[in-house]
Amino acid sequence: MVYEIRAAPTSVAGWVCQGVSWECDRPGGAIVTRLSGEHRAGCSGWLGVVRLDHVSKSYDRGGAVVTALRDVSLSVSQGEFCALMGPSGCGKSTLLHLVAGLDAPTSGEIILGGRSAKNFTDTDWTTIRRELIGMVFQSFHLIPSLTAEENVALPLLLKGEGGSPVRDRVAEHLDVVGMQARAKHRPGELSGGEQQRVAIARALVHRPQVILADEPTGNLDSTRGSEIIALLRSLPKRFGQAIILVTHSPDAARQADTVHMMRDGQLDARAT
């Protein structure tokens, strides 16, 4: 069963999962936190940037069928920070991979920016990732031989942009993540937290509508991880992107507008 919940201003003996407390309002609908207040001001006019309608994903493993996602429906709006939580193997990363076009659903439909992805070609998906989606990974995936600013410039260069507009945009986004002073440094000269800040700038620089963040604090200590989550939290308010965050961290999930628990490939509201 799925419950609608709103974040309590203080710890409330309502609905508790992995140490995070929410006040439970009513059965039915999506799991929702922080719907009111500054994070969702004016949300009634927002459009769904990402929508999954009854999406399932199965794999053939040596003749055995393994189901990674089961009939998942989810909508994420412009400016919304959505967190997916659950144990390893519950389907969180599979869901992100489907939204990014890195894999295809077995059934159901994914709609991005109002367009159904059912008949997307590889070329279509390449365009979607260049225009609509920014991705942040646990392992940073920076190119070691390039400087921070060169790594951030890559999405723009792949779109055929160049010259001073690219330099200006790169400088702007390195400043947003607090890395302008380290622009000339290569990844090997940066700490893990600094590398992830550069990766976030790279995900932002082409002005996507949605950021997909797959365990972005997984390789960081708690202090650096908190800084990265705070940075991600600031992006919807500053730039209007939707963010879908996969995390094991209750502290990270607390910062989200919406929190969806996953279990056995399904969205699930049962406390664990």
Order of strands across the widest beta sheet?
9-10-11-6-12-13
Characterize the overall form.
globular
- Write down the secondary-structure element order: EEEEEEHEEHEHHHEHEHEE
Helicity level? 25-40%
Radius of gyration: 19 Å
Strand content: 25-35%
Question: How many β strands by DSSP?
Answer: 13
Q: Structural class of the secondary elements?
A: alpha/beta
Mean pLDDT, rounded to whole units? 82
* Biggest sheet character: 6 strands, mixed
In whole angstroms, how far apart are the ends?
Answer: 14 Å
State the helix count: 7
Give unreliable regions as ranges: 1-46
Structure notes:
The chain has 272 residues and is an alpha/beta fold. Strand 7 (107-112) and strand 8 (115-116) form a beta hairpin. Strands 9-10-11-6-12-13 form a six-stranded mixed sheet, sandwiched between helices. Strands 5-4-7-8 form a four-stranded antiparallel sheet, covered by helices on one side. It has helices spanning 92-99, 122-131, 148-158, 164-176, 192-204, 222-239, 250-254, and strands at 3-6, 15-17, 20-27, 48-61, 64-77, 81-85, 107-112, 115-116, 133-137, 210-214, 242-247, 258-263, 266-267. The two termini are 14 Å apart. The chain is built from seven helices and 13 strands.
